[in-house]
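Moderator note: this is an archived Q&A kept for reference. The question asked for a predicted structure of one protein chain; the sequence and the answer are reproduced below.
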Amino acid sequence: MDSFDGIIEFVAVAEKQGFSAAAQELGCSTSHVSRQVSRLEQRLGSALVARTTRLVSLTEAGNLYYQQCRELLNGLQQANEQLGSQQYQLSGVLRVSLAGTFSETYVMPALMEFARQHPELKLQLDFNTHIVNFVESGFDFAIRFGQLQDSGLVARKLVQRSMMAVASNDYLQQFGTPEHPDQLRQHQCIYNNDQWTFQLADRATSVKVSGRIHTNNQHALVNACKSGLGIAYMPRRNLQPLVDQGLAVPVLEPYWYQGINNWVVYPNRRFLPARARLAINYLLQHFADWQE
């Protein structure tokens, strides 16, 4: 069984990207972690960790070994959790990557309620739009919006959303009202992604747009539209308040796309920690009857 010595320390070093941080996570000394990882490397006859003065990274062999070890520890944790039929008492840190206004407004409160139900669970939320490397970042899962790139990840639909295009009266009076998505090429568009998807003749069609305002902040997009700086195309819940308040007018309504989704994304692996598995199931159930 001594072949298992050092695996927990090695996984902690890989996920924390440092011996000191791993020691703090495990509640032991840095020298103990370093010694255990060194002994593990000696037994395996392979360098797992590349050490520099400022950064600790995994070697190619270390990266492959980490993925197997992480799966092993997840499986062991799941076996321990399933041993009894009692209610799970979750602990540890649930790390989630989120992006967008929907995550801020709806997903975050749901996760807060999940954490409230499990007092020993710590919640770490990171808001960014970057592609998540689950091996390097240590995230349990991510919440993402729109068309996902093909990958080895598992993606489960959280909600389906409908899009809406609007512009202020001032903008439309000055530049005219587009009657077809192709006419957007002659308009100022306020955008995050410059490829807008519309429903044309029973199929989804992408239109490339441009404009003076380009931002990944949803509030900035809404404010720019309200200020008459162009046409915005976003999920309906983001723009409907502008229309209700008389600050914007819907345009291109026959072409609005109805099939944009929010997703729960996580690694394609056999074992998920209970904290991730139960949190994902909680979110899926929480949003089961959600309407745009």
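Archived answer notes: The mean pLDDT is 87.
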